[in-house]
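Example protein was shown:

_____
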Amino acid sequence: MDFPTQATMQAMTHATFNWNPCFSNLGPQFSTICPPTPLPAPYWVAQNEKLLQDLGLPKELFSDESFLLAMAGNLLMEGSHPKASVYSGHQFGVWAGQLGDGRAISLGEIQTPKGIEDIQLKGAGPTPYSRRGDGRAVLRSSIREFLCSEAMFGLRIPTTRALCVTGSPEKVYREEVESAAVVTRVSPSFIRFGHFEHFASIGNTQSVRMLLHHVTQAHMPHLTEQACDDKQLALSLLGEVTQRTAMLMADWQAVGFCHGVMNTDNMSILGLTLDYGPFQFLDGFNANHICNHSDTQGRYAYARQPQIAYWNLYCLAQALLPIIEDQDQAILELDRFKSTYPKAYDSKMRSKLGLQDEHEDDRRLIQEILTLMDKERVDYPVFWRQLSHSVADSVTSNHAFDPVRDLFIHRGEFDNWVQSYLKRLATSDKRQASMQMLQVNPKYVLRNHLGELSIRQAKNGDYSMVQSLLKVLQSPFEEHPEHEAWAALAPDWAADIEISCSS
């Protein structure tokens, strides 16, 4: 089959994509024009029809060969303005200086039924910020980001999303020879803490001010309406980002998600989960779990994520300080984290336990079960899902908690905890509590071994598991009986999967 000409592509997209440049219009100091590098012999690996619909785009696009070429970076769509942005950041706690989009190229922003969305190709070839890298992504990492973006969306956790993955026979050299791929990412904005840090670090306060106005006008207009001057606007932005980030950390911790590389250049100014590299959902609960093989010091261990988020926010505050001009006021905004995070986390954990109201002893109840799970490495998602069912079963059975009890070795300690838990539930409608728990305790998460199995199949040309996983992860609280095995305990070999910054 002959590929459509660029003119055909332009004609098709003229009516389909409502381009509305926003960030790309700020000026050349923020981004550099950078056309994608064509991907040889591209093919579809994965398609997200739900997101396509959410963007208000016709479902026929995924059947159009020219759209495949556009998502592979082989054709430029009429109205698109491919650019790579510059930013800096702290990596593993150390100032890394200038970074930027080393393998991501934004095609531009489009108007959708839900607002502005930036369309970005990750793995589209070198940019001015590639630092001698090839600018490519590999099939393995692209599938992982595609699936996890949508898994987080299905869990109702703020996140960037993924529209599709295109593959290619082109060889890419990492720890081993792999095949190239491009994942198309979608977000209202890909602006990071590091964008502000970059211009602050070179003393360009005017560009920091321009970013401030752009972010608030485009994404937080209520702040613009309330602020009387730039100082107040910067304080309001810092407070807003602090609250959003605190809520995000509560989401991560409650669901057992490890990001793995919480550098300031990987922190979204909108409070979204951004940049899926060495992530992991916990199997056996380990508060000190380190999912990133490259993180030799354990800086980004699961239990440290809230602390690191606060540290990153402090870096953002420093970047805004030339506008805020008052360190004490900036710290007051940062202090929102210290109240917002524990309150949000406790609330989410109470929901996981089916508790309808707040009691002063709840935190002890939560900590006791987490400590016991940590000691015995009890499977995190299996425990919470089974507990959800056991609460309802306890209305008619004296052995309802046996399946949960069987997850523990020291069952007497679990029995003691269950007695405390049942006393706390004594005045609750247990069936109603169970229904609540089933809506917040997912049956399915993207366990490492599931991602690995789908990648192995994809490397052999079979993309069916990627698409099946996508559908399940987009509705993780439903039963999906045909995929019951994906909710089971992780196999022993899963512990040997290593993920690093190259993942």
User: Anything to note?
Assistant: The chain is about 45% helix and 15% strand. Residues 194-348 form one domain. Residues 145 and 276 are 5 Å apart (CA to CA). The first helix runs from residue 6 to 16.
